[in-house]
Amino acid sequence: MYIGLDLGTSGLRALLSDAGGAIVATADAAYSVANPHPGWSEQDPADWLDACKTVMAQLRTDYPAEFSAVRGIGLSGHMHGATLLDAQGQVLRPCILWNDTRAAVQAAVLDETPNVRDLSGNIVFPGFTAPKLTWVEENEPEIFAKVAKVLLPKDYLRLWLTGEYVSDMSDSAGTSWLDVGKRDWSDDLLAAGHMHRDQMPRLVEGSEISGNLRENLRADWGITGAVVVAGGGGDNAVAACGVGCFQDGDGFVSLGTSGVLFAAKNSFAPDPASAVHTFCHAVPDTWYQMGVILAATDCLNWLSRILGRSPAELAGKLDRAISGPSKTLFLPYLSGERTPHNDSTVRGSFVGLDVATSPEDLTRAVMDGVSFALRDNLDALRATGTCLSRVLAIGGGTKSRFWLETLATTLNLPLDLPEKGDFGAALGAARLAIAADTNADLSTIMNRPKVAETVEPRIDLVDRYSETHARYRALYPNLKVALS
């Protein structure tokens, strides 16, 4: 038996699977995010450990025989977080999360440093790890002076599980300290941020063994044999393992809290100026390119709070079939934006409101706006030479048929919906644990899910959505001026 742990922004998900990848059980535990100042987003790493204890106890209680037979654990986690530890392994301050934008100035300085983009393969975004350490150096020097190790969130959980300071290539690619082409820490990139190699964890591939579960945990949990812990990876790379997306040309779109358009690559071919991320995959000798929008279903969650109606209620008021784009435009930059704008200061906007605008109109506008933002991502990927002819669609937003048809038509791509099941990062993490323990061929472990249905673009409406997207895209420069 194998366990996949997905350390998300709002909670930890555990998935128990057998050696064939069939899901036996899942368990979840929630925790909170602190926002002590505008643009700040922090979390107490102790909450991750408490959540892990909770989900493991639930799995053991509900499936004692299966749990006792666990032989591997895989890890997935939200990327870019800065968990700072002293020489004794104690946490120095709350972890600064991926959606924290306080280090925008420091990111801009690092991004302009010679060779940083060339070595890292990416723009230095404010949410990346390296600028956060520069911010700590400038604003909390007494803490910076004590930093002995910097761990990404899932790697702090690994430290508790194994006692080992280890990370993987895919998660580390989002720090701006990794030479993404060579899949190793770069002394030049570290020096640019006044960091040193000895402050970094050891690196492994996501499908390799990173360590073994500590004996006291194994005994406390009643597991009978040794348990390997796989390298794992950043959440999107591991989610790609969950849907079998690791061959060149494979892709998926995720309508989750944030939005992602992901394309696997068999070579390293970055184009930082496009604001497309080029990272190592969680499997060896593979990379991926990804466009990211910072708010997808989070936009609908925001609207639901404003209107006092649940997201499901708002979505349920819309027809299943689309009839054309909304007259009201929505720019979904509630937390700034990554691809293609790399702008941490821009904010969202409705354009075209009038006295007749209804809650349904606002809901349509939000779904359109998120879809248009993902169209921006597709255009950016295409500009790098990446070609996608169809993509899997995953994430909570795919429960809305209206949103799916909007997105398919806006992208002008067929969206394949997996058969009902859990195909997220927790499953991908379990698959990496299987690979680490068995050394089996990755293509047999990470098979693609069966497609339950394909949502085709509405050919009769493609041109209308494309024209409206052009109007949407033209609004960004004017919004920047209005906010400056």
Provide the β-strand percentage band. 15-25%
Radius of gyration: 22 Å
Ends apart, CA distance between termini:
55 Å
Shape: globular
Mean pLDDT across every amino acid position: 94
Low-confidence runs of at least 5 consecutive residues: none
Give the number of domains: 2
What's the architecture of the largest domain in CATH terms?
Answer: 2-Layer Sandwich
Name the descriptors:
484 residues, alpha/beta, Nucleotidyltransferase, domain 5, 2 domains, 7-stranded mixed beta sheet, 18 helices, 24 strands, 20% strand, globular
Structural write-up:
The chain is an alpha/beta fold and 484 residues long. The chain folds into 2 domains: 2-236, ATPase, nucleotide binding domain (Nucleotidyltransferase, domain 5, 2-Layer Sandwich), CATH 3.30.420.40; 244-422 and 450-484, Nucleotidyltransferase, domain 5 (2-Layer Sandwich). 37% of the residues lie in helices and 20% in strands. The protein is built from 18 helices and 24 strands. Strands 1, 2, 3, 5, 13, 14 and 15 form a 7-stranded mixed β-sheet that branches. A 7-stranded mixed β-sheet has the order 18-19-17-16-22-23-24. It is globular. The N and C termini lie far apart (55 Å).
